[in-house]
Design a protein that fits this description.
There is one protein chain. The chain is mostly helical. Strands 2-1-3 form a 3-stranded antiparallel sheet, with no helix packed on it. The protein folds into 4 domains: 126 residues, Serine Threonine Protein Phosphatase 5, Tetratricopeptide repeat; 107 residues, Tetratricopeptide repeat domain (Serine Threonine Protein Phosphatase 5, Tetratricopeptide repeat, Alpha Horseshoe), CATH 1.25.40; 60 residues; 36 residues, no CATH class. β1 and β2 form a beta hairpin. The chain is elongated, with a radius of gyration of 30 Å. The chain is built from 19 helices and 3 strands. It starts with a helix and ends in a 7-residue tail after the last strand.
């Protein structure tokens, strides 16, 4: 709502600027022509179009401006500005019409045409016409002035369309980005390709893409986790454990994502004691609700529910969290020592709803909150920026 109001305010703020620049351009052209009166006068036509806009008749205004372009291409900057403002107001069809007509003018010079193409490409992206936008930006890549911008938009298009191979090719050409940023994003693209190959059962291709991901970014935690899952599914428990442990060392705040599978590996390898020792070495900020519950279960007497319940309660005193409270109440409600388990069930249902919020994920870049882990933030489109809420600031 606030953004819409700001755009609306910007539109009316810049309109006089557009009017002034257009008037001077039209006046200059009129002097050069030294002819044209009545309805053919550029100044009159320009203010006629401006009057339509002020009276909220944009379609009639567009008709006037399009006709003006046919008379005088020197007013092109004004039309570009108005088309841009139409797009920002969400009136994409009108923006497209203005920019398409500009590009069709044979009197435009190379720079003006390129600028109009940039604006039209953004119009198409706003309208969801990504194939048309792609064609425009592929053309603009050859323009030195707009190359970096065109590559950025192409990357966004291919990412949106999940064309990861094309996205990788484009990103490799984006020399204006720091190499580390490029490599981290390319590694994520390779992980996406690995996920696609995994869905089709092409294990060799999965392995190849994960190897490529680690090749460009050796610290890619997602690739380590996917390798662990692949090894586990193949029955290679030792290799799976190695991959999962590497994942935890790379992204300790995401240990909850794999900790139960790590425990399964240790069980099969008869090395649960080592697992407990590793848990103790985890930094406190990395110990999420799942990791803490697994550790408490193992540290307590698993045959004695009271011992486990007491261990959870003790942990709650040191590290209060809704998820541990939920776990403790669940055990308490199942206990025969409680006189009124029904009341506890009611309380448990409330805590469960709160725990769902407590155990969500938040993007460190834009603050977007989600129930599950997203490697690509759905809001700001940043990669590998989402971590558990309970790990943020370690509350």
């Amino acid at each position: 709502m606030i953004i819409d109001l700001m755009i609306e305010y910007l539109f009316w703020l810049l309109l006089p600027v557009a009017a002034a620049s257009g008037w001077f351009a039209a006046r200059s052209s009129f002097k050069k022509q030294q002819s044209g009166t009545g309805s053919d006068c550029p100044q009159k036509g320009y203010f006629k179009g401006l009057n339509y806009i002020l009276n909220e008749q944009p379609d009639k205004a567009i008709e006037v401006f399009v006709e003006m372009v046919q008379v005088d291409s020197e007013t092109v900057e004004t039309h570009l500005a108005l088309g841009n403002l139409f797009r920002k107001r969400g009136e994409v069809d009108r923006a497209i019409r203005i920019h398409q007509n500009l590009i069709a003018r044979p009197t435009l010079n190379v720079s003006q045409r390129a600028h109009a193409l940039v604006e039209l490409g953004q119009d198409y992206m706003s309208a969801g016409l990504l194939d048309r936008a792609e064609n425009i930006f592929c053309e603009l890549v050859e323009n030195s002035r707009y190359k970096a911008l065109a590559l950025r938009y192409l990357k966004d298009i291919y990412q949106s369309e999940k064309e990861w191979d094309n996205a990788i090719k484009v990103l490799r050409r984006m020399s204006d980005l720091p190499r580390t940023v490029r490599n981290k994003t390319i590694a994520q693209y390779y992980c996406e390709l690995a996920e696609q190959a995994r869905e089709t059962g092409d294990v060799p291709l999965v392995k190849r893409h994960l190897k490529q991901a680690i090749g460009v970014d050796p610290q890619c935690a997602r690739a380590s986790m996917l390798q662990g899952e692949l090894e586990w599914e193949s029955g290679n428990v030792k290799n799976a454990l190695r991959c999962y442990e590497r994942f935890i060392s790379q992204s300790p705040e995401l240990s909850d994502e794999v900790i139960e599978r790590v425990y399964d590996c240790h069980q099969q390898l008869n090395s649960v004691k080592k697992f407990l020792a590793d848990l103790r070495r985890l930094p406190e900020a990395a110990v999420g609700p799942v990791t803490r519950r697994v550790g408490l279960r193992l540290h307590s007497n698993t045959d004695d529910e009271k011992s486990y319940r007491d261990a959870i309660y003790a942990a709650l005193e040191d590290h209060p969290s809704l998820s541990l409270t939920e776990n403790w109440l669940e055990l308490l409600s199942e206990s025969k020592e409680i006189d009124s388990p029904a009341e506890l069930h009611k309380l448990l249902s409330v805590i469960t709803r709160l725990a769902d919020e407590d155990e969500g994920y938040r993007c460190q870049h834009c603050g977007y909150v989600a129930k599950s882990l997203h490697w690509l933030c759905p809001s700001c489109k940043h990669w590998d920026s989402t971590i558990p809420i309970n790990a943020i600031g370690n509350p």
